[in-house]
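The methods section describes the discrete structure representation at length, but only in general terms. An entry of this sort, consisting of the sequence and the corresponding backbone structure tokens, reads as follows:
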Amino acid sequence: KSANPQWREQFDFHYFSDRKDMLDIEVWRKDNKKHEELLGTCHVDITALPAKQTNCLELPLEKHPGSLLMLIAVAPCTGVSISDLCVCPLGDPNERQQISQRYCIKNSFRDIKDIGFLQVKVLKAVDLMAADFSGKSDPFCVLELGNDMLQTHTVYKNLNPEWNKVFTFPIKDIHDVLEVTVFDEDGDKPPDFLGKVAIPLLSV
């Protein structure tokens, strides 16, 4: 019941500079649990924002009255990466040695927040459920760890997709759980759920 709401929420997204992404924002109004109405949209060109500083933006809603006030900071993405299996970051012996030195006992208290990192190789899925009328699915895989989320590309018309991707996450809490979910891409509609597995870090 407010025309001037304050949310004061923070969201972290992984943005890789080789992509030309737009940040799309939608504002919705809720009458009750069932009825929702779109109050407006706005878009931010991330590539046009100065890096390493907090940008205060007042964004008018398109085709609707009102505006959004946002703080957007584009900062270097540390510790998070996506790579192909053939160029796996831990496959380099020099990098392995640097990591061993970084996390050795004598350096334990150098940076308390730097607990470590997790590297996940997503190879393939087998015998997935068919989500399309053709008896096939268009599966992709989403990995979530704490507030970090990364995903594979979509393999079209396949129940046994091979992704062969390597994902690296910084660990912020040793009690976090890695959640791996497989979805079926469904065009403009929300993706269909094909399955999920949860792996507590302490079990690795």
Summary: The CA atoms of residues 40 and 61 lie 5 Å apart. The chain has two domains: 1-76, 81-203. The helical segments are 93-102. The mean pLDDT is 85.
